Each structure stands twice: as structure tokens, then as C-alpha cells.
């Protein structure tokens, strides 16, 4: 069984060529999408839906930096978010609490543009973490990479929550 | 002398001959059928030169049914038996139809909406099938043969129940559904291929009863939907309705004694409202004049400013899904290269202005907004049946709404998030709540809200026979799979014992296979001998098709198999060929299944080879660049 990196013919590392990921993904979908097998046998239809489904899952995982880092660690036997393993550095927890408070304040004040600004801030923080991850993975600093990945995953959640609040305010 | 050969209906004598396939836009207000002829997508017209078939079905006491313009002309005279905008009721329960006080039908309370007519109780699936039947006949007459299949379009924001109902209606009309295609995606195909467009586009589709917004990225024939959103109960009909309510207010102000309208007058005023709306697209004011059955003369004038004021909230209602789709795609309005308008309701100037303001650019309108969806569906149908193999048309669409399962406390656990690219599969594990629990009930829901009661309920099913274990010890894996039509199937499996349950989510609002079979057989009015003859003919066609596709696969990719494997497959082919000469459809089906199973490994190896070729071809391209 190929792993996601092999599937898209990419080197197994955090810093990947996103354009190559996209072109490989499109090539695989062009070959395997169920639309190509509408008049094919049931056996071929089944293989097509399986191949296209796993290509979608693989693409989604590698495209997103947090999921990519998590997957890369899992390939080395490390589970980034385990039930027993949720300890976070105190300064990051503080930062989290500040963001949560800011979201709550903006929600109460129905201030969508404040939420938009917060999204921009978190996105740029997240970019910085990604650069850190590139180095950590390159130097095989897996324990540090696990911590950074965990932060990245939490920041994804915060961003999703902000989008939900914006949606609620707009709806 | 050798006898002349005639092929099975819908099957071409040589594999490369043009197959007859159509795209159907089953609209709220109008429906269309289109096909690709000599490389050009064209809308097919009826004998009178009409391309649009009004989606109006009238039932007559003598059992006859009229569809289209004739039915539309009679709607005020016969409002209870003339059904318009039936699409709004597809896959819906009666309580979903909030404005039913203003609709002149005799609703019947069943699990799904049904309407009492002089020809009996009709459900939306049956009524839609009447429209599809007319379009099928139109196409077969124009193309001179039986159709291989059809692509039917649905609003992108249709939920599983609405999609299933649409597919059922097509089956009932005797159509083979190649694919359900989202309307904005269809429009993008027609527009994108016509204009060789590349980049990120927004498709703003305001139809008669539904609103969709899709954000797509177009790259070299690949149409990738990044996000979609909408409102499955917002469309041009609502604008008519606002005018209608305004007219009622005017009448009330001017006449002392005003009684509630009867059904015929309701339909009459709704028709006048629609005409006024259309008139206001090109004129400053519209006069609404008619005489009600009570003798009361209605004569009021509505100007553009008033109309805009009456309907501005409706226009604004389209902008919040638009913002949501952009946010889900991770884009700003300024990232959008072009905005394509679809649907007759986008002809209204204040709608166009709102869209232009929002995206800071003039929307593209060089394709007829009424026809663009059917044209795109025809292009997709043509590609699906293999009439154009070399062309790199590929549509990557998404789920419009999240799919999940009910957990403790009536909360929704999302399994597949909205805007996941199709096909998609996701699994999640659940466990038992009590010691010794041997069964579990699952409730499958669709929607974004946290509370199950705020989302749409799709199906309920049970997993039984779980071996007794302490609470929390069982591992029940629930797998959700959404196919390329956007239809969901769910299975449950207890991991330690292997106990399984599987449901195709056939929601409470769809028809069961048995119901469809019954409706089909009663419409054929067939004796059972005829049915068996038909089943036999179908089984033979399918078997022959499978044999020829496997033989051609063996010819091109035979080197992927060992001699022993080849012999095994050939033996199955010989068996099936023998049973085709027999008279039992059951035997043919069993041997067809056996041949299919015998080629599973071959199919997998061919897929690997084809993926490798595609990846290598792509790399070759990048070297050439």
C-alpha cells in the first residue's frame, strides 16, 4: 500500500511542492474518477470509486499543513493528538485564552470585522509555525515537531470556530 | 444471403458509434432537454419550436395528463389539478412547505408531500416523472432512437432526500440516470468550455425556487468546485409571491368587504404577479388588471422602485450564502475572476446590481441564463457515455451539507463535513452505553446545526446482534460514503464480532425500490410474461456489454495477467455466452456477477496502470514546458 506522498510522487517531507501535488492529484482523478467508468463493468466501477475516494482523502490531507504534519508524524509512529497527550506550553495556552476571549467579545458586540482581523492574525501566526515545522522535520526534531503540529491543529480549530461565529452573526 | 443485423435499442453496433445521451434541466419553472450534436451542445425544441417546457402538469378526470404550455394555460381555470413548481416539494414533508396557505392545492398528509387531484393522490416524484417523460419523448423523436442515458441537474444545495427523489422520478420516467449533476457546475461547464476560461469563477444561480452559489476553479478542462452554498427554498417564485401579497394589500385598502380568495383567484393573481415581475425587467411600471370570480375588478400599478423595495430582503438573502461559500473556499470577493449568472430570476436588474456590487465587477451574461444548465448537462452526458474520450473534461464536485449521526443528548456528530470533494468516505467508531447492550439505533442527519432537531433527518437504522459486552467495550464502526451523484450510503459494523448492517439512505421522503417497481409495472400495464421478457432482454444486453468490454480490456491490457488468470476469465466468458443463449434472466445475471467477480483483480491492476500512465503523462507535460 502506497502512502500519500508516494501516491502523488512527492518526497516524504513537510515542505512539499503544492503545484506538483495539484497536478498529480488531477492526473489521478482524470484516470480514476467514477465519471470515466459510467459504462464500465461493476468490477471497474468499484475500483474507480475506491481509487478516487482515497485520492480525495490523500489530497485533502497533504494540502492542509496541519493535517500534513499530523500525517507525516503518524508515518513515524507518532500520534500528535492522543487522549493522554494534551499538555501545551503555558504561553500557548495563554495565547489561546486571549483568542477565545477576543472571539467572545466580538460575538457579543456582533463585530464581524474584528473577527476577520483575528483570522488574519492567526493565519500569519500559523504561517510562522509552518516555517518552523519545515526546519524541525528537516532536522528530524520529531518531539519539537509534534509540539508545533499540535499547536497548528489547535489554531485550525480556533479558525473554524471563528468562521462558525461569523456565519452565525451573518445568518 | 446473410441476414441484416440490428442492434439492441440504445446500443450501437460498433463501439465507436455516437451514443444518444441528453442533459435535462428539471427546473422549478421551466424544464429543458439538450444534447451534443456534431460536437455542438444544442437545446432540443418541441414541434412548435419551444425550447422551454413549463414545469406544469395538469391531471384530467379522464386519466389524461397534459404537461407544459397547455397545462400552464389552464392553471387559473383548474388550479387544484394543475401542479406548478412541483420541484419545491421534492423530498419534502408537508410541514416543510411553510407557505402552503397560499398554494391552491389539496395537500394530503403522508410521509412525503402528496397532492389530491381528480386523477387520484399524486406525489412530487410522480408529477416530476410526467415532465421528464415528455422531455424523453421529445429527445427520442429529435434524435431518432432510444436514449442510452441522461444527466439530470439538481440544485447544488439539494439535500440527500431531494436528490434521491429526483433520481426516483427519472427512473419512473424510464430514463437511465448517468449522473445527477449540480446546476451551477453544469453552467460552469457550458460557460467554461465555450470561453476557454481559466481561473476562479463564481456561479450565481437564482432559479424559480432555489438559490445556489458555487465557487469553482477551472484548470485545463478540470472543473473543481471549491465550495457551494445556497438556499433550497428561495427563488423567483418568492418575488412573485411578494407582489401577490402587495396586490392583496392594495385590494384590502380599496374595498370594504374583502373575502379570502378562492383557489382559481389565487392562481390568477400569482400568474399576474409573475407577469408583472417579468415586465418590470425592461419597464418602469407594470399594470396589474384582472377580474376576480367575485366580480371584483383589480387594477393596480406597481413601479420598479416599489418592486425593489418589496423584494430587497430576498435579494439580500442570497448574499449571506455567497459570503459563506467564499469563506469556505478561503477566498475574497476580489479573488473571483468572473461571475456567471444562471436562472431566469437573474434577469431582474436589482439582482444583477446586487451581484455586481458584491463582486465589484459586471457579471457575465453571454449565455442564455435559461439554457446554460441544460447545455452543460448535455456536454457532461456526452462525455460520460464515451462519445468524446480524448477530451479532458473532469468535474470534481462537493457535498453541499455536512452529514452526521445523532449522539447522546440529541447532538449531531459530523462525519463528512460540507464541501468535501466527491466521492468521499469517512468512518468513525462508536461504542455501547450500557452493559450487555446487543443493539444500537442510528439516526443519520444532514445539516450544519449542533442540535439534531435543527437538521434534516435522513434515515434511521438498527445494528442488532452485538455480542453482550461491558459498556464501552464494543467497537462499532460507522462508514459514510457519498458517491459521485452526491447520494449517501451508510454501513455499520461491530469490529470485534463482524456483525454488519448496511443502509442505502433511502430517506423517509423517497420511494422504496418496491414502490418504484410497482409504479413502473402498473404504468407499463404489463402481464408477468412481458415483464420476464423485458428482464431477459435487459440481462442479455448487460451480459453482452460486459463481455465485449472485458474482451477489449484483455486485448489492450492482457499482459497484466498470467496465462492461468486469463484462462479463468475466458472460462467465465464462455459460461456466460452459453447462458445468454438460454431463456433464464436469473442464470444470465448470476453468470454476469460471476464474470464481474472474476475480473476484480484485473480491474484493480488496470487502474494502477492507468494511474501510473496519467502521472507519467503529466510529468512528460511538465518536461515539455
Describe the structure.
The complex is a heterodimer of chains A (171) and B (625). Chain A has 171 residues and is mostly helical. Chain A folds into two domains: 4-63, DnaJ domain (Helix Hairpins, Orthogonal Bundle), CATH 1.10.287; 90-170, HscB, C-terminal domain (Monooxygenase). In chain A, 74% of the residues lie in helices and 0% in strands. Chain A is built from seven helices and no strands. Chain A is globular, with a radius of gyration of 19 Å. Chain A starts with a helix and ends with a helix. The mean pLDDT of chain A is 91. Chain B has 625 residues and is an alpha+beta fold. Chain B contains 14 helices and 27 strands. In chain B, strands 1, 2, 3, 4, 11 and 12 form a six-stranded mixed β-sheet that branches. A five-stranded mixed β-sheet of chain B has the order 18-13-14-15-19, sandwiched between helices. In chain B, a hairpin with a 3-residue loop joins strand 8 (106-109) and strand 9. In chain B, helix 12 (563-580) runs antiparallel to helix 13.
Summarize the structure.
The complex is a heterodimer of chains A (171) and B (625). Chain A is mainly α and 171 residues long.
Overall geometric form of chain B? globular
- Provide the structure class of chain B: alpha+beta
Say how many strands of chain A there are. 0
CATH architecture verdict of the largest domain in chain A = Up-down Bundle
The count of DSSP E runs of length 2 or more, i.e. the number of strands of chain B, is 27
- Largest beta sheet of chain A, briefly? none
Amino acid at each position: 500500500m502506497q502512502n500519500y506522498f508516494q501516491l502523488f510522487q512527492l518526497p516524504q517531507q513537510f515542505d512539499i511542492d503544492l503545484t506538483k501535488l495539484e497536478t498529480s492529484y488531477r492526473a489521478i482523478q482524470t484516470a480514476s474518477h467514477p465519471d470515466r467508468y459510467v459504462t464500465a463493468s461493476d468490477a471497474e466501477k468499484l475500483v474507480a470509486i475506491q481509487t478516487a475516494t482515497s485520492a480525495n482523502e490523500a489530497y485533502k490531507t497533504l494540502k492542509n499543513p496541519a493535517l500534513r504534519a499530523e500525517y507525516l508524524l503518524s508515518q513515524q509512529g507518532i500520534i500528535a493528538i492522543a487522549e493522554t497527550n494534551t499538555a501545551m506550553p503555558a504561553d500557548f495556552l495563554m495565547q489561546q485564552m486571549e483568542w477565545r476571549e477576543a472571539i467572545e467579545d466580538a460575538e457579543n458586540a456582533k463585530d464581524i470585522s474584528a473577527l476577520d482581523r483575528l483570522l488574519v492574525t492567526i493565519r500569519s501566526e500559523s504561517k510562522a509555525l509552518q516555517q518552523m515545522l519545515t526546519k524541525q522535520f528537516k532536522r528530524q526534531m520529531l518531539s519539537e515537531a509534534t509540539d508545533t503540529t499540535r499547536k497548528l491543529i489547535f489554531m485550525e480549530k480556533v479558525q473554524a470556530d471563528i468562521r462558525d461565529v461569523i456565519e452565525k452573526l451573518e445568518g | 444471403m446473410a441476414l441484416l443485423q440490428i442492434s439492441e435499442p440504445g446500443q450501437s453496433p460498433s463501439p465507436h458509434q455516437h451514443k444518444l445521451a441528453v442533459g435535462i434541466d428539471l427546473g422549478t419553472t421551466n424544464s429543458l432537454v439538450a444534447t451534443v450534436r456534431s460536437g455542438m451542445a444544442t437545446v432540443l425544441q418541441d414541434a412548435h419550436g419551444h425550447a422551454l417546457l413549463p414545469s406544469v402538469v395538469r391531471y384530467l378526470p379522464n386519466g389524461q395528463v397534459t404537461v407544459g404550455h397547455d397545462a400552464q394555460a389552464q392553471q387559473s381555470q383548474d388550479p387544484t389539478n394543475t401542479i406548478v413548481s412541483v420541484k419545491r416539494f421534492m423530498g419534502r414533508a408537508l410541514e416543510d412547505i411553510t407557505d402552503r396557505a397560499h398554494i391552491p392545492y389539496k395537500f394530503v398528509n403522508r410521509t412525503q408531500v402528496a397532492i389530491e387531484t381528480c386523477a387520484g393522490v399524486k406525489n412530487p416524484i410522480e408529477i416530476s416523472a410526467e415532465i421528464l417523460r415528455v422531455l424523453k419523448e421529445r429527445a427520442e423523436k429529435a434524435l431518432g432512437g432510444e436514449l442510452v442515458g441522461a444527466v439530470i441537474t439538481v440544485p447544488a444545495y439539494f439535500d440527500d432526500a431531494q436528490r434521491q427523489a429526483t433520481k426516483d422520478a427519472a427512473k419512473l420516467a424510464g430514463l437511465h440516470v448517468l449522473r445527477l449533476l449540480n446546476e451551477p457546475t453544469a453552467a460552469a461547464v457550458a460557460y467554461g468550455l465555450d470561453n476557454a476560461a481559466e481561473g476562479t469563477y463564481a456561479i450565481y444561480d437564482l432559479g424559480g425556487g432555489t438559490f445556489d452559489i458555487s465557487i469553482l476553479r477551472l484548470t485545463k478542462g478540470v472543473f473543481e468546485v471549491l465550495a457551494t452554498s445556497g438556499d433550497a427554498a428561495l427563488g423567483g417564485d418568492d418575488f412573485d409571491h411578494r407582489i401577490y401579497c402587495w396586490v392583496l394589500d392594495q385590494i384590502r385598502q380599496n374595498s370594504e368587504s374583502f373575502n379570502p380568495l378562492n383557489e382559481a383567484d389565487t392562481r390568477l393573481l400569482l400568474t399576474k404577479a409573475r407577469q408583472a415581475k417579468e415586465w418590470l425587467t425592461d419597464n418602469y411600471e407594470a399594470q396589474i388588471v384582472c377580474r376576480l370570480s367575485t366580480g371584483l375588478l383589480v387594477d393596480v400599478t406597481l413601479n420598479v422602485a416599489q418592486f425593489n423595495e418589496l423584494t430587497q430582503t430576498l435579494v439580500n438573502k442570497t448574499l449571506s450564502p455567497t459570503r459563506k461559500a467564499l469563506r469556505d473556499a478561503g477566498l475574497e470577493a476580489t479573488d473571483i475572476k468572473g461571475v456567471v449568472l444562471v436562472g431566469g430570476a437573474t434577469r431582474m436588474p436589482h439582482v444583477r446590481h446586487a451581484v455586481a456590487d458584491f463582486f465589484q465587477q459586471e457579471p457575465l451574461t453571454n449565455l442564455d441564463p435559461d439554457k446554460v444548465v441544460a447545455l452543460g448537462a448535455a456536454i457532461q452526458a456526452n462525455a460520460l457515455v464515451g462519445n468524446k474520450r480524448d477530451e479532458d473534461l473532469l468535474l470534481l464536485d462537493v457535498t453541499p451539507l455536512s452529514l452526521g449521526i445523532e449522539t447522546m443528548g440529541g447532538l449531531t456528530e459530523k462525519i463528512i463535513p460540507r464541501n468535501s470533494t466527491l466521492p468521499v468516505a469517512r468512518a468513525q467508531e462508536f461504542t455501547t452505553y450500557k452493559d450487555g447492550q446487543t443493539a444500537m439505533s442510528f439516526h443519520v442527519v444532514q445539516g450544519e446545526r449542533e442540535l439534531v432537531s435543527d437538521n434534516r433527518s435522513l434515515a434511521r437504522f438498527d445494528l442488532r446482534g452485538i455480542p453482550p459486552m461491558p459498556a464501552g467495550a464494543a467497537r462499532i464502526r460507522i462508514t459514510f460514503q457519498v458517491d459521485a451523484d452526491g447520494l449517501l450510503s451508510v454501513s455499520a459494523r461491530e469490529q470485534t464480532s463482524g456483525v454488519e448492517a448496511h443502509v442505502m439512505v433511502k430517506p423517509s421522503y423517497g420511494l422504496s425500490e418496491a414502490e418504484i417497481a410497482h409504479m413502473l409495472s402498473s404504468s407499463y400495464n404489463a402481464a408477468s410474461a412481458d415483464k420476464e421478457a423485458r428482464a431477459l432482454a435487459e440481462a442479455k444486453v448487460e451480459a453482452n456489454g460486459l463481455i465485449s468490454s472485458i474482451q477489449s480490456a484483455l486485448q489492450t491490457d492482457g499482459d497484466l495477467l498470467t496465462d492461468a488468470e486469463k484462462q479463468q476469465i475466458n472460462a467465465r466468458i464462455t459460461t456466460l455466452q452459453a447462458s445468454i443463449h438460454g431463456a433464464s434472466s436469473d442464470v444470465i445475471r448470476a453468470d454476469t456477477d460471476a464474470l464481474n467477480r472474476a475480473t476484480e483483480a484485473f480491474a484493480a491492476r488496470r487502474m494502477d496502470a492507468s494511474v501510473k500512465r496519467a502521472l507519467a503523462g503529466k510529468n512528460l507535460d511538465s518536461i515539455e514546458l
